[in-house]
Amino acid sequence: MRSTMWRRIDVPGMEACSINKDGTGSVISGMAIYACQNTPIRIGYSVACTSDWECGAATVDRWVGEDNLKIALQRLADGRWSANDQVIDGVDSLLDIDLGFTPATNTNAIKRLKLAVGSSSEFSAVWLDDESWTFKPLKQRYERLSKDTYKYVSVDSGYEAELTVDDFGLVQVYPELWETVNS
Predict the structure, then answer these.
(1) In the chain, how many domains are there?
(2) Which of 45, 95, 112, 182 lies 20 to 30 Å (CA to CA) from residue 26?
(3) CA-to-CA distance for 47 and 49, rounded, in angstroms?
(4) pLDDT computed for residue 36 by the predictor
């Protein structure tokens, strides 16, 4: 369906991402390699989405130095989320996964929201904090500024960025963090 490669701007690094149809939904998968406190880090990931771009599951496989981490995230039938079979508090009934180390899941939210120019939406996502490597709720707001520009706001922290996307909704530029090197 779509694929891209991003260059990390704030530290040396790259990421390759593809979005493919899978049955009735889509799968976003990729591999990010970058420097983390002058140590190489490799993160493979996959996010399964319905045809409406609601997230249902994700996997993350990360290593940095000798530290390896594998996470299997799943939305349960009752709307709760679990990571490696442990229920995550505070994220019941959320529809989006935000993997903090990649712009791929911003694309997922943009696809699900289908905002018209001038419209906005505020919601919480199941966020993987890539500093603590824990899941928590993250209140976010997206506002569509133009055909190819969205304002992203992390509501609680006040962080803001204007994301540039292509016709599909795939993030092309995430200021100060990622930019596409091909499309």
Answers:
(1) 1
(2) 182
(3) 6
(4) 84
DSSP 46-98: EEEE-TT--EEEEEEEEEETTEEEEEEEEE-TTS-EEETTEEPTT-TT---EE
Q: How far apart are CA 22 and CA 159, in angstroms?
A: 33
C-alpha 167/C-alpha 80 separation (Å) is 33
pLDDT at 81: 97
The residue whose two tokens read 């983390």 is: 36
Query: Which residues does 61 contact at the CB level (< 8 Å), separation at least 6?
Result: 43, 44, 45, 69, 70, 71
CA 3: distance to chain centroid? 15
Q: How far is CA 165 from each of CA 60, 96, 136, rounded to the nearest angstrom?
A: 24, 19, 26
Domain that residue 72 falls in: 2-182
